[in-house]
Amino acid sequence: MSLASSRRADTPPHLGDPALLAALALASVAVARLDAATALHPLLPALLHRTRLDAARRQAAADGHLIDPWHLAAALEGLPLRAMRDSERIMDAGAIQDAARLALDYHGWLVAPDEDAEDAVLVVLAALEGQRPYGVPLLDAAWRAWLWLERGGTRPPLRAALVRRLGTAGLLRAPLPLTGAAALGPDQPWDPPLWIPAFLRAVAAEAGTALDLLIEMERRWLAARAAVAAGRRSTSRAPAAVDLLAAVPLVSATTLAVALGMSVKAACAILDELVRLEVAVEVTHRHSRRLFGLAGLAPLRQAAAPPRRPLPGRGRGRPREVPAALDVRPEPAPPAPPRPGPLERRAFAYGDLEAAMQAVDAVIRKTRAGLARLAGSGPADADAAGVGDPACPTDRSPR
């Protein structure tokens, strides 16, 4: 390291910089709002699961490995990679497999690092808790993160240590993965006076996204619970299935069966019933290996093309041109309902959610191990390793 770069690394940016102060205020407010909303919230385990997966995906993207969030969710459920090739994104199955493997590796750093990884995280955490030139936890964490990377430190343990540092500094009571991943993208500046505000803005954006997700999850979950609760026996497993659908982006009947301790056939019946009630949507449009998401939280349905079916009255050749007079514009979406309060939340039991999340964590560990074994295999071998749901076929027959 040259004398000039050494002097730069030892001198944090001046606190009076307006851009730095604006970014700090933005991040502080966003983190405080998220902490207030998530403290003791019953859906916190579900939010942690979704945000950790999304954080791992964003971190992989910042490191040059792009993967669509719904491709990652489908990979977790064992959907064969050949089924994920029909996408507007030009990406082959091998690239999807590599990106999914890296994302799940980053997920492991955030959730359950092994012994060696834990030692590396503790080293970074000690560095983050070292010199504090500002006396402001967010600014000090950003400065020490820059210093760690400038001196050759690696990214995965830094990200895991940042999550813990926000907790030890009293900024977040839950280990939500705010790591400022976007600040490490290839188009970001590296000089500290520019990078530190970019990092704080990235943290603010992550906190805002997590809060928006929590609010939307809460609305969709309570509406779904109310839809399935009427007229059911107290032993019905449909409400617990709704809990799991709120917690994970996509779920298969196999995962649902393991999480709720039932047969795959019974899980298929519950999922089909939830689809009929418009509580859930099927996002894969396949005869087998079907995946489901909670209505309103599964945008893969818009990205995945449904099976091609002949339209009534249509012959061979190109489709008929629709006259302009018959072109009906979609109606605007109705306004979102008000956010539920604590009393509305207490009307439901949350006991099944924690057990379901443990089953989902087991699926992630299994998928991570499977992708690691397939690291030297081709896409065809990866397809053969898909788990899916061959025992849960749809009732649609080919026409």
From TrEMBL:
Residues 303-344, 374-399 are annotated as: Disordered. Residues 375-393 have a biased composition (Low complexity). Residues 331-341 have a biased composition (Pro residues). This is Uncharacterized protein.
